[in-house]
Amino acid sequence: MKLETKAKSLTGKLTIPGDKSISHRSIMFGAISHGQTKVNRILRAEDVTATIRAFQSLGVKIDDKDGIIYIQGQGFEGLKPANKPLDMGNSGTSMRLMSGILAGLEFETKLIGDASLSRRPMDRVADPLKLMGAKISGQGEACLPPLKIQGGHLQAINYQLPVASAQVKSALIFAALQTKSNQVSEIVEKELTRNHTEEMLQQFGGELTVSGKRIRIRGGQKLEGQEITVPGDISSAAFWIVAALIIPGSNVELQNVGINVTRTGILDVVTAMGGKVEIYNQTAIAATLKICYSTLKSTRISGDLIPRLIDELPIIALLATQAEGETVIADAEELRIKETDRISVVSDILKAMGAEVTPTADGMRIRGKTNLHAPHKVIDTHGDHRIGMMTAIAALLVQEGEVVLEGSQAIKTSYPTFFDDLKGLLGTNKEEGQWQ
Ligand code: S3P
What we know:
Shape: globular
Structural class: alpha/beta
Distance between the termini: 6 Å
Radius of gyration: 21 Å
Number of helices: 12
Helix content: 25-40%
Bound molecules: shikimate-3-phosphate
């Protein structure tokens, strides 16, 4: 599709769609709990649909009535063998977290995914789950999908995570819940990562203790269905935060943004760069953010900050092209195994648009401030939603020529209303752009 260029400014209010991580987990916790779970404001996007369909294939009754999702959970024991492979589409979160659930079930399940997911390593979850007693096979050393999981009879684990990953941590929590009630698992994180699984486990009546990076969890716990309201996804809000900061004259208000502290690294970075962000109407889980165009300076992004903004790094790289000085992103080698190798794909796109970006083994160095121009080639998302959205925001700065995006469909995995929301903030009401 042809992207919008030469943006004058972004203005107005926007309610941010539901958090993807919390939406997945609402379905998962609902399915393994007893009784009804009601989910308000779930993210309507392909990744979450993959999780819903997978649990329906495992025999869970899930209904969508008047925009609310109802899940009739019957505990882990209510999950039944699926009569076809579970298709996780593009969703790494679905595949990795569900592996932890399936690891405890005494039947075989096959998990498949699209081309991008089929290139992503599953050994990070398969290895510890095998130590707990599950039988898991994938392709090659990295245990690539398709995966076969034959679960049952899990033993508690004492495990130091070799990578900072909420997905792996969460899979192990789901597996640990299925050990016997006299067994306690201990999971130690490499760095603190998003803690939605820990928080939601307690919300569903479960218990675990967290001290720093150490999590202890007892097996055999019975969870109870709940009512959940999903806050907006700060990872989706990030595109508008950056757009408002870099397009002169912008002033936007983003409502219902989830502000769990394990996710708010982008706000710390923006503040360090001199960006104007105000937070108000704050509740325990969400807030309104007001952002306006700002003069920005470079910063360093590394260490324990990385897991708090891992999904925002593509759009933060764009932000850095508009800041004075050299911004360094380091300790972010995990970016190489996301939906694409985001270090190389982001560097290539921004360089094609005239930015000074040097990819490194574990991040990027970006020197600003540069005027972005139209690339001399079509930009391809390579099936990565966040690459598509980053390119669409970068295109807004282009003053001459066209920016054409191939594979914009990928954006639907996490943010199907992205282009409508963009039009709303631009104040343009042109005919619908064609997804392609
Ligand atoms: C997620 C965790 C992160 C993140 C992903 C969603 C989650 O992955 O990149 O988009 O919901 O647990 P890792 O935990 O593998 O870094």
